[in-house]
Amino acid sequence: MAAAPAVAEGPPDGPDADPRIVEMMDAVPGGVLVDANHAVWPALDMEMTVPGAHAGTTFTSVGACPGGRICVFSGRSLTGPSLSWGSCGDHSIPSNFTALSLANARSSGYAQARNGGSVFATAYAGRWANILGAATYVRCVL
Known about the structure:
The protein is 6% helix and 39% strand. It is built from 1 helix and 12 strands, in the order E-H-E-E-E-E-E-E-E-E-E-E-E. The protein has one helix at 19-27, and strands at residues 8-9, 32-35, 38-41, 46-49, 70-75, 79-85, 90-92, 101-104, 110-115, 118-124, 127-130, 137-141. A hairpin with a 3-residue loop joins strand 5 and strand 6 (79-85).
């Protein structure tokens, strides 16, 4: 079992969270803030995503990778099972998952499939790439 990413649980108290996310987290207990525009309620299998507050910010999917997320797929060209993350940072790819393609369905920045200092693929916002090596983690940069 993989460790969950570091996220805030319960109503967010920072000014960066979208007010609609804050309102929903106040109304429905058990929410986990993924980023300023995305929260999940694991016990309810529910998630909420709102458009970014910045001008021109939109979330659109890239293949089967949902908008606002970074995904790795076990097959080339975004095929097969996938893992995804909603927050930016360094995310370990479990050793029992072979990542062969990478998608960045976020509205800005880039994601890289890496192993140590080696970069095997880079996907810019709204794009995807096949991974050409044995990636052990994904780095997301805003």
